[in-house]
Specification:
By secondary structure, the chain is α+β, with helices and mostly antiparallel strands. The protein is built from 3 helices and 7 strands.
């Protein structure tokens, strides 16, 4: 791997009770987060292709770790999302280079599909920042029950010359969804919308 990884953290969240109501089966989401060295921290570089390659590598690594944390086959994942935070010596374009051009293909390969765009967020911040990973159904963007997010943080990341990169997957939508929209049973998964 071309990324210099300081640490990887995997988080699983399982909701069993919401507003006094039992959630059956429990909703589960997992995020795998890598803290990597930013090779371009503190300087402007025109060609960001090394970060694009890192994004492709991390897409596979992190999605495999998130799926394994849920203990499911990748094809059973229902929604996904990605996010990155650059340290103070980085620029937002560094996060964009990791998240956008090539990260999606390996994530989709691990999950066995993924017709919908992978929701993403990026920001610049310091150690202990909260990373909000937006989530959406992997095959149909109009499934409202899967409009969600996962909040993660690592107490010592990102440092000034680092990038914190996360991929999140779920085996369900929000607990107790009831705002209408396309249901999972109605998903065709052909155009990424329905």
């Amino acid at each position: 791997m071309s990324a210099i990884i300081r640490k990887i953290v995997t988080v699983v969240e399982e909701t069993r009770l919401e507003m006094g109501q039992t959630v059956t089966p429990p909703t589960r989401r997992a995020a795998a987060i890598a803290v990597i060295e930013n090779p371009f921290a503190g300087r402007y570089v025109e060609d960001l292709s090394p970060l694009i390659a890192i994004g492709e590598e991390l897409g596979e690594l992190l999605s495999k770790k998130a799926v394994a944390a849920l203990g499911i086959d990748g094809a059973k994942a229902q929604s996904y999302g990605k996010a990155a935070a650059v340290g103070e010596n980085g620029e937002l374009e560094h996060a964009a280079a990791i998240l956008h051009p090539k990260m999606g293909a390996p994530v989709r390969q691990v999950l066995g599909k993924g017709a919908a765009l992978i929701p993403s967020s990026k920001k610049r911040s310091g150690p202990g920042t909260t990373l909000d990973i937006p989530l959406g159904h992997k095959d149909a963007a109009f499934v409202r029950s899967h409009f969600d997010g996962m909040e993660v943080m690592i107490n010592d990341a990102p440092r000034a010359n680092e990038i914190m990169v996360a991929v999140a997957v779920t085996d369900s939508g929000r607990p107790l969804p009831r705002v209408g929209g396309l249901t999972v049973a109605e998903v065709k998964g052909e155009d990424g919308l329905r």
